Amino acid sequence: MVFADLLRHSRQQGVPLVAVHRGTHAGLVQPNTVAAAWAAVASGGDIVELDVARSADGVYYMFHDGYEKPLLGSDRSILEMTSEEIDVLEYAVHEGRGCGHVERTRDVVAALRGIPLNIDRSWRYWGDGFLEQLAQWGNVENLIVKCRALEPFVSQLGACTIPFPFIPNVRSRQELDLVLAAEGVNLVGLELIATHPGDDLADADLFAELADKGLAIWVNTINLESGIPRFQGLDDQVSVFSDPDEGWGRLPDYHVDIIQTDWPWLAKSYFQQRKAR
Question: The whole model's pTM is what?
């Protein structure tokens, strides 16, 4: 099922879609891989978020640069390595066994054509023809692109003639105005960041207005190493280790259509049980 149909069905069912942060990675399965994506779907995920990084010689990989040391045991940035160097790297050894290699974006997208993918961190390359290559590798209807709602990224997407579903990361009313007025983009939703209850975007009435426009509302409940809340502290930590009614359970008040989580099986189960109450 393509993303648009999946979203329509989810709204009819009254259960939000679950987006999985970098796929589900455990045991020998590493983040940002085909295996992690399939594991995410098997764990109840509807959308898989994946990160893009480019090698020094212009080859695209699914990897979140900055995690080279814990994942690859390397002190060098993947952005500074050539594709020849990257291709021979192994993910950290687990009990004496290697855990595979960093996978090329082309191969990952081609292998996951039937799964809606949220392509993150690729905006750095939009001005270099990345979007045109991405369209050749997979099903455009299932390739949700994102960027911070800033120039020049929004304009670069607008200049692309390929109608990728666009869900930008919005952190202020100014950024919201920018994307709502943007031309040439296929704006299907908004990923809204409100770090605390007094935040500029922490307004349920605003969320209702955006939902009335037909825009999908995406909220992050993931907990990042920085400790900065993504949405008023209504997060995975609260939902998993305290009370899900005080975390995930408060998101319907904001007309949320999609939540991004590291715990898809628990989030999916919670919303299904909540509907049955």
Answer: 0.97
Q: Along the 277 residues of the chain, how does pLDDT read in single tens digits?
A: 899 999 999 999 999 999 999 999 998 899 999 999 999 999 999 999 999 999 999 999 999 999 999 999 999 999 999 999 999 999 987 666 778 999 999 999 999 999 999 999 999 999 999 999 999 999 999 999 999 999 999 999 999 999 999 999 999 999 999 999 999 999 999 999 999 888 989 999 999 999 999 999 999 999 998 888 899 999 999 999 999 999 999 999 999 999 999 999 999 999 999 988 8
Helix (H, G, I), strand (E, B), or coil: what is residue 18? Answer: strand
Secondary-structure breakdown of the chain: helix, strand, coil percentages, each rounded to the nearest 5: 40, 15, 45
Supply the DSSP string of 83-146, one letter for each residue. HHHHHT--PPPBTTB----PPBHHHHHHHTTTS-EEEES-GGGGGGTHHHHHHHHS-GGGEEE-
Structure tokens at 249: 């359970």
The residues pairing with 192 across neighbouring beta strands, listed in sequence order, are: 170
